[in-house]
Amino acid sequence: MKRPNFSRRTFLVWVLLLVAVVALVQTERTPPQPHEGHDHGPEGLDDLPEGRFPVFAFGEPDIGSVTVAWKSRHVDFERNPDGSWFQVSHAHDHDHGHDHGVDGHTHDHSGDRPDKPDVAQITEQFEITARMLADRAIKPDRRLVEYGLERPDIVLTFRDRLNGDPLAVLRVGDLLVTGYAYYTVLERRPNRILLIPRYQINLLLALAFGDEAPSLVPERAETSGEAGGLEVSERRGGEPGGT
């Protein structure tokens, strides 16, 4: 039987074709990487994403300082020169208009809380917070004040480690009627409301305010032993005015 006559050129063509197929398969299997920089990622999307998605486009190593404002108080976290985290203050803000800037008159009550978090606790929580997922995004169909987002009790501010500029400011409004998620909005994207699970926000409040912080789940869930999660009305967007 006569052997097929494969030229060197034919052999190279087949090799290149095989390499192309392997590369295509590898590309299909490789998940897309998040965009770098402050102007990309979830904060820069024009369309509402489907399903759960990251709230922030940065990681814990990118954060230089964090301010957790709750009602009339705020707590600041900063880094030492070696990069380790520490709690700066546990302050009472006398401006009860909920202006959570740092220019107002404050009294430092750092001694009020003996159980300040240590470096490991702060680092771990900020790693978790930076990976925070929203359950859904919705477009507001009424004024932000009706979602508790006009002058919210909770404001989370994250600043850049390199230049101190804001990475993100997350305003946290009312709970949905079921109590398992908050209406939230990023200051850069006021036309898009994010539904974020209650526990993800309240874990950060617990880091800053200890036992005074709101519970991770609604009281009825604590007493009845319900598992955490979203109820049907929350998956559909819920109604403003939850408590």
Strand order across the largest sheet: 5-4-3-2-8-9-10-11-7
Distance between the termini: 85 Å
Instruction: Report the oligomer.
Output: single chain
pLDDT averaged residue by residue: 77
**What kind of sheet is the major sheet?**
9 strands, antiparallel
**H/E order of the elements?**
HEEEEEHEEEEEEHHH
Number of helices: 5
What does this structure look like?
With 243 residues, the chain is of the alpha+beta class. It has a domain at 64-230. 23% of the residues lie in helices and 26% in strands. Strands 5-4-3-2-8-9-10-11-7 form a nine-stranded antiparallel sheet, with helices on one face. A two-stranded antiparallel sheet has the order 1-6. A hairpin with a 5-residue loop joins strand 8 (154-160) and strand 9 (166-175). The protein is globular and about 80 Å long. The N and C termini lie far apart (85 Å). Residues 21-45, 94-111 and 227-238 have low confidence and may be disordered.
Please write out the topology.
Elements: H1 8-29, E1 53-54, E2 63-70, E3 73-79, E4 85-93, E5 106-108, H2 119-130, E6 133-134, E7 136-138, E8 154-160, E9 166-175, E10 181-186, E11 193-197, H3 198-209, H4 219-224, H5 232-235
Antiparallel strand pairs: 1-6, 2-3, 2-8, 3-4, 4-5, 7-11, 8-9, 9-10, 10-11
List key phrases describing it.
23% helix, alpha+beta, 243 residues, two-stranded antiparallel ribbon, single chain
Structure described in brief:
The chain is α+β, with helices and mostly antiparallel strands. The chain has five helices and eleven strands, in the order αβββββαββββββααα. The N and C termini lie far apart (85 Å).
